[in-house]
Amino acid sequence: MATSVTVYGPPLSTAVSRVLVCLLEKDVPFQLVPVSMAKMEHKKPDFIKMQPFGQVPAFQDDDITLFESRAICRYIAEKYPTQGTAGLYGTNPLVKASIDQWLEAESQSFNPPSSVLTFQLVFAPRMKLKQDEALIKLNEGKLVKVLDVYENRLGSSRYLAGDEFSLADLSHLPNTQFLVDKTDRAELFTSRKNVSRWWSEISTRPAWKKVVEMQNA
Amino acid sequence: MAVKVFGFVGSNATYRVLASLYEKNVDFELVTVNMAAWEHKRPRFLARNPFGQVPAFEDGDVSLFESRAITKYVAEAYADKGTSLKSKDLKKSAIEGVWAEVEAQKFDPATAKLTWELFFKPLFGMTTDEAVVEEFSKKLEPVLDVYEARLTECKYLGGDSFSLADLHHLPNTQVLMGTKVKSQFDARPHVSAWAADILARPAWVKVTSLLPK
């Protein structure tokens, strides 16, 4: 099937998986081109042309090339507003603003500590690198504060930005999946009643389950 | 007044929002949050921003936090007023969005640390940690290299027109131009020209006139 959308990168990458789940939620066909990080393919000139920082993912649709997973997700949601999951970027400007607010919260407050923990607890051992206990403790402390805010928010709202699943919730899937599934820190999420309920709902969506299958393949 | 910004003169993120409002010629009231008295951690403010950070924003019934979400709202709600901050073309807007993410993910983490060490700490009578300055100056170098290459292709980061992608850089860049980090910008002709251009924008000059002398 001819398709205009290409994603470059391994599905195990949190940023790549963020884009994949968005495409699946929106029923947008795509081809996934593997990039071997072990062979440093992401630092080669052909890749750098698409992504000047040499990071995955890179993304092409028709004649445009994009990078930064959250920018790619916004583009997909704006290009296909009524296809697949309709409310992903809101159906009116006020909901959209709320989604952008919680997507920024994910990007600025949730992502930094959860990324450090994911690297330290999941990837460092796999790469035979020594874990930094001080860094783990520091970032766990930061993440706890963020999850306390979420616990409160999700007590009065089904999803972060409102009543419908949106890009704001979606953006949390990659890091949380690793922390809940592949570390002994799942209780950070599961011990919080509302966060646990929210995680259970968003992680069992068919699109995300498909991405996890791709990661475990 | 319908538009209110709850912030603090001295908060980079507050300036980001003010810049967007001035660009759009939208009248607003700046309500000062007394950070020294921990007002930002009290229930009344936490109701506006549960993370206890400035700025928070109100426009009639709309309440928002996170400066980059607020500027996007301003750019879209007032699309037909003042300067265009977001292209109406989907592809052009997507590319602007890429570089706005670069600011959020790469430029800000490096430069916010530098503004704290080199500007705010001395202001508060604290000592600059030179090791941190060196570490984060090094982190900034490859980012500015990418910017230099990008700005040889087009006048602004997001394309040929000024957009939120450029605007979001204003607060940290302004502060760093008064520090030794200026040399990192000056070493790159296109980055240097771009920085001078955006810092000279009348809307930005209005923001800086709010700063204590």
Automatic annotation (TrEMBL), chain A:
CC annotations in GO: cytoplasm
Reactions the enzyme catalyzes: RX + glutathione = an S-substituted glutathione + a halide anion + H(+)
Swiss-Prot/TrEMBL keywords: Transferase
Source taxon at top rank: Eukaryota
Enzyme class: transferase
Ranges for domain GST C-terminal: 92-217
PANTHER family, A to Z: GLUTATHIONE S-TRANSFERASE RHO (PTHR43900), GLUTATHIONE TRANSFERASE (PTHR43900:SF96)
Name of the protein described by the UniProt record: glutathione transferase
From TrEMBL, chain B:
GST C-terminal domain mapped to chain residues: 89-213
Family from the record: Belongs to the GST superfamily. Phi family.
Ranges where the GST N-terminal domain occurs: 1-82
Enzyme kind, highest EC tier: transferase
Catalytic activity: RX + glutathione = an S-substituted glutathione + a halide anion + H(+)
The organism of origin for this protein: Deinandra increscens subsp. villosa
Cellular compartments per GO CC: cytoplasm
InterPro entries listed in its UniProt record: Glutathione-S-Trfase_C-like, Glutathione-S-Trfase_C_sf, Glutathione_S-Trfase, Glutathione_S-Trfase_N, GST_C, GST_Phi_C, Thioredoxin-like_sf
UniProt EC number: 2.5.1.18
Domain of life of the native organism: Eukaryota
GO biological process, one term: glutathione metabolic process
Entry keyword annotation includes Transferase: yes
Keywords noted in UniProt: Transferase
Name used for this protein in its record: glutathione transferase
Gene Ontology MF terms: glutathione binding; glutathione transferase activity
Origin organism lineage: Eukaryota, Viridiplantae, Streptophyta, Embryophyta, Tracheophyta
